[in-house]
Amino acid sequence: MLRLLASGCARGPGPGVGARPVAGLCHPGLLQSRQASDAPRNQPPSPELVARSVGVCSMMRLPVQTSPEGLDAAFIGVPLDTGTSNRPGARFGPRRIREESVMLRTVNPSTGALPFQSLRVADLGDVNVNLYNLQDSCRRIQEAYEKIVAAGCIPLTLGGDHTITYPILQAMAKKHGPVGLLHVDAHTDTTDKALGEKLYHGAPFRRCVDEGLLDCKQVAQIGIRGYSTTLDPYRYNRSQGFRVVLAEDCWMKSLVPLMAEIRQQMGGKPIYISFDIDALDPAYAPGTGTPEIAGLTPSQALEIIRGCQGLNVVGCDLVEVSPPYDLSGNTALLAANLLFEMLCALPKVTTV
């Protein structure tokens, strides 16, 4: 049984392929039949039919389910910030991202993606983390994601601090073997330890390398920047075979050519996308725990994610949104949009 709790103030009608939206959440005319069966595909309700303030607080106002069975993709919250080193608050990220996602719609005209006509998608609520024990939380996350990926469902995760990517990748590697990684972040997150601890948000990818969860020749890190305690802070990453793209090498330019190179690097291997919101300049995303100046722009973030179309993406996350430092809600709004773009970039999504 998944340790998942429904987000917001109510849950859907329960597990099962045929689970229907919460009453009043979705106009029945918006549900479309699945090609291979009579099970309906879920669609966010149109604001022309249902006011944005109406309904359960789920991602894009999608139905909330407790089982991944029958889903092609699902949004999952991991409200954990016990691994944070600076400003806390990312435990509130999933809820705030869901709130801001009411502005999203069903079609991406810029890319031609029709995700809700291609995939059956729902919100699986939140993993029931243990805020008092980081190791136990990681165990719970890994167990929950093993069940999700075993059901053939691609997870799109709302974080949560970056510690959560480590147990998610443990679950991914159990099914796919070592995976490629597109990591968008201000920081490499490959520190070995801090204050004697090896498990925190600055070390998830070091732990992944230690356990052989990554195909290191197919790892790319984009947006890296910030001051350091050494003059060669990326030596470890490059020694492992990672491609490290500094933020300053992205300034004032389109990243479309870079993503063409990344697609060639990744090939057809299963890859995971991990996007830390602090990759973006704090002028655009101030609500995060460890902001660094001179970061990427939202348009560059779109180029990165849209550049993943055609890749074998097996999972995604968007982490480190800290609502207490996001007074306008713009950071969470940006995060919600990027998660929708990730959904649009998944395999099997029809584009026109």
TrEMBL record:
Pathway in which the depicted protein is active: Nitrogen metabolism; urea cycle; L-ornithine and urea from L-arginine: step 1/1
Domain of life: Eukaryota
Catalytic activity: L-arginine + H2O = urea + L-ornithine; 3-guanidinopropanoate + H2O = urea + beta-alanine; 4-guanidinobutanoate + H2O = urea + 4-aminobutanoate; taurocyamine + H2O = urea + taurine
Cofactor remark: Binds 2 manganese ions per subunit.
InterPro entries reported for this sequence: Agmatinase-rel (IPR005925), Ureohydrolase (IPR006035), Ureohydrolase_dom_sf (IPR023696), Ureohydrolase_Mn_BS (IPR020855)
Sequence similarity: Belongs to the arginase family. Agmatinase subfamily.
Cofactors that this protein relies on: Mn(2+)
The gene coding this protein: AGMAT
Origin organism lineage: Eukaryota, Metazoa, Chordata, Craniata, Vertebrata
Protein name: Guanidino acid hydrolase, mitochondrial
Metal-binding found in the keyword field: yes
Protein source organism: Rhinopithecus roxellana (Golden snub-nosed monkey)
Binding-site residues for Mn(2+), renumbered to this chain: 162, 185, 187, 189, 276, 278
Functional description taken from the UniProt entry: Hydrolyzes linear guanidino acids to form urea and the corresponding amines. Displays specificity for substrates having a negatively charged head group and short chains including taurocyamine, guanidino propanoic and butanoic acids. May protect cells by detoxifying potentially harmful amounts of guanidino acids. Metabolizes L-arginine with low efficiency.
